[in-house]
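Allow me, if you will, to draw on your knowledge of protein folds for a short while. A protein sequence and the structure tokens that stand for its backbone fold form the material at issue. I would ask you to consider whether the tokens describe a fold that such a sequence might reasonably adopt. Thank you for your consideration; the sequence and its tokens are set out here:
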Amino acid sequence: MRQDRIGIIGLGYVGLITASCFAHRGYHVSCMDVDKEKLDSLRRGEMTMYEPRLEGYFSEGIASNKIELTGTVHEVVSSSDVIYFTVGTPSGPDDLADLNPLKSAVESASDAIRNQKRYVVFAVKSTVPPGTTDGVVRNLLEESGKVAGKDFGLCSNPEFLREGSAVEDLMLPDMIIIGEFDVRTGDRMESLYRKFHGDRPPPIIRTTPSNAELIKHATNAFLATKISFSNTIANVASRVPGCDSKVVLEAIGHDRRIGKEFLRAGLGFGGSCLAKDLRCLISFARRKNYDPTLLNATLAANESQPDVAIELTESLVGSLHGKKVAVLGLAFKPGTDDIREAVSIKVIERLLKKGASITATDPMAMQKAKRILGDRIDYEESASDCIKAKDCAILVTEWNQYSSITAEDFRSLMKSPNVVDGRRLYDSAEMIKKVGFVAVGLYNPKLAEHPER
């Protein structure tokens, strides 16, 4: 039996990774995107984003003719057996997902199957509110005159990709969620994934489309809550002599009911998923006449967390007016060039309002940051040049290369060796001995003097 041919509609983050990984496993993948410039760039071999191993997989797919870049949805549908909608769903004015790009793609797919006799399966990977696949998507596809479950298959198949390790997450996922409209669709999708993963398939959970959509939102909401909880504990610990949140959080992570993942104090979460999906779920719940107070608190805690960096910096250098500050890291996390909802931008904006002069560095995200920050700050390629002659350095993104900066480096290069460790990258005891040093969740006498803060 031949492999299913895969179609990808939307070559953003999820679409490009999905296409590249399927091609790497030997599948033929037909892809399209409405952005012609993006398609042209990909045809020239220019990647539109950074993700470890992605460029190699994509280039391999192009060279072997496993990846085909086409211009229309019709071409994708006519040459594929399983078609993924991987269209972006940005936040709308009410924080709910803007479904217009998805609707446009589905309308084109509906037109493509109008005169087609072949049975295909449509899988919605786009993050959408519960009820979208079985409602908006199905209704638009059935405008073709075809019937879901009879003439075509339909499911919600959310992704759980972490930026910086997305290829690994797709190749070795914790689980696969198939929100099937009908049994035939579920069987087809389960067969596809069992072949894709071979002898060791992950747990495959088959459920309804609405359950699958809510599972995606619930997962991100829980992770966001866990991060904000960790930061809340860290903020308490910073005001208590003898308390270190790193020790506290590592300890509770050994409790199997809690687990170690996402229990690290820092300056808050960013990226394209957690904040957006959390706001969407809050808005969705309110539309259902329920006020999710826990999720509101999670979001509020994250919004205020970058202020911790400012408080800690002021505890070291006093007034920030006229001070020269180095910001180490611009991407929202290491391993990516993504600066969407990045804490670095929030910290820099607050520093600028305080009158500080900023120099920033990042191994991958500087060009994207320049589009937002422009010439309001300075940029340096290397961390050593970034911290040179500065009054304070703030570590915002825990890139591995920054861990090699020693206390002696800070002392010899900086005007005043003051370091705010926003991600607990450094050995606190060593740094405290040799430089002015504070870290998120580490005891700070000046903060302890003002517990009302």
Summary: The longest strand covers residues 176-180.
